[in-house]
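tokens incoming
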């Protein structure tokens, strides 16, 4: 049965990605074509618990934002209403479930449906809210491209483009100084960015989480290049890469919280020690999330936003929009969060890397 929709809300959760604003614009413009009102929840679900945290999004609010990076309604990766952090009477941090408060707050704003834009964490929250009776549609967002239910997520191609451009620039300085350059890219569990950008930018060595590396293999490849008179090397490493028998590397930052990272510096140190070659490392970090989306990501984000509104109109709640080329389809949220998409060992891109002589560390 087609639902009676008057007002919908949209939020963006988790890490930002190029294309979020394009999704917001598509949702607003598509909804207004149907006579619906759209509201944006600031900073994930946080805005529901704050004064003025739910804002009206009309045509003027989304004018000229398709090409912009970031998100006009903000995002957070710490605002999980299922595990909300509060201090108890003793001053210790405890976790409480505020999901019913989310549902009640949306009802108080007379919201008929929610479009939740995010990665696996945000979509898991959306699925939990759907199971509690909320009308939810999911839109997949992650620069890691690691959601198995969709062929592609917006933000990924822009991140690869940014990383490729950076690696291209490293070639000239590495060759000029006859150095080994190690560049660390994002990729916690999946190495899609490192593999894609590494191959596109003709890196000599690419290390990804799916293939535990042996530092001896890495150093052998570097020594081979220098022996051939190619007195520089480019090493691309995903932040979640780890050696055979090891595990991903974490660093402790402000507040005592641990963050994945540091593998690039460690590998650079080991290369210098084993080969004697001058080595530098670079962490590209959040540059991969920043900036406006490229044409492909803009188009995909706009398609996802429009498709999400179509699903609301059809009453197909508990689903996520997904790309199954050439179409955008609906898949159950439960299915979408059930598995991640890692680089398979029979991946054509991986086969291409090996065919070109790229060392994968194994």
């Amino acid at each position: 049965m087609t639902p009676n929709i008057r007002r919908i809300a949209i939020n963006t959760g988790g890490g930002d990605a190029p294309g979020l604003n394009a999704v917001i614009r598509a949702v607003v413009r598509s909804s207004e074509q149907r006579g619906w009102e759209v509201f944006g929840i600031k900073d994930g679900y946080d805005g529901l618990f704050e004064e003025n945290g739910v804002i009206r999004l009309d045509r003027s609010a989304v004018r000229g934002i398709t090409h912009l990076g970031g998100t006009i309604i903000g995002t957070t990766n710490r605002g999980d209403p299922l595990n909300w952090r509060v201090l108890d009477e003793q001053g210790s941090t405890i976790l409480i479930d505020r999901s019913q408060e989310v549902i009640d707050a949306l009802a108080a704003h007379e919201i008929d449906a929610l479009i939740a834009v995010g990665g696996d964490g945000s979509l898991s929250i959306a699925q939990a809210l759907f199971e509690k009776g909320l009308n939810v549609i999911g839109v997949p967002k992650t620069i890691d491209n690691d959601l198995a239910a969709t062929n592609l997520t917006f933000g990924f191609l822009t991140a690869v483009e940014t990383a490729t451009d950076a690696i291209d620039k490293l070639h000239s300085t590495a060759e000029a100084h006859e150095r080994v350059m190690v560049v660390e890219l994002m990729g916690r569990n999946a190495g899609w960015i490192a593999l894609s950008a590494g191959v596109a930018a003709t890196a000599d060595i690419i290390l990804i989480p799916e293939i535990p590396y042996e530092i001896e293999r890495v150093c052998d490849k570097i020594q081979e290049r220098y022996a051939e008179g190619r007195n520089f090397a480019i090493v691309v490493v995903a932040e979640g890469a780890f050696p055979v028998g090891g595990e991903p590397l974490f660093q402790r930052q402000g507040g005592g919280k641990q963050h994945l990272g540091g593998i690039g510096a460690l590998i650079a140190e080991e290369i210098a020690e084993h080969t004697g070659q001058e080595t530098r490392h670079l962490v590209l970090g959040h540059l991969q999330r920043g900036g406006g989306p490229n044409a492909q990501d803009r188009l995909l984000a706009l398609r996802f936003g429009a498709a999400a509104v179509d699903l609301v109109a059809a009453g197909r709640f508990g689903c996520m929009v997904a790309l199954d080329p050439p179409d955008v389809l609906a898949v159950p949220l439960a299915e979408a969060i059930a598995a991640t998409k890692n680089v398979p060992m029979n991946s054509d891109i991986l086969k291409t890397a090996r065919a070109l002589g790229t060392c994968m560390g194994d």
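note: The CA atoms of residues 4 and 247 lie 51 Å apart.
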